[in-house]
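Chain A, query sequence.
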Amino acid sequence: MSSGSDAPSTLVLADGRTLTLDARGYLADWQSWSEAVATTMATVDQITLEDAHWRVIHLLREYYGRFEVAPPMRLLVREIGRILGPEAASSRYLYRLFPQGPAKQACRYAGLPKPVSCI
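Chain A, predicted structure.
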């Protein structure tokens, strides 16, 4: 990823495609997302995406596709607990997956805009 302080930046994927990011590092067009986007962003952050990460990412994209907004944290925790089991039904679990913050980092990997609740 290249970046300027207020200028858009780019993300170069392994297949050579270049995608535009906003000034905060979020994908400019959420519909241009692919799993390669998430993998590339995670690699930059030194995170290996595993099944639990992907379930969160796909849940975020599904919700955003229906409601055009990222789900509230409480709903995200509840749904991940339903999908992955009660041991995953906590914000602490989500922070272990996405240490920069489940809303902020997971939404970025999912190709979604920065949630309005994130500062």
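The chain has a mean pLDDT of 91. DSSP finds five helices and two strands in the chain.
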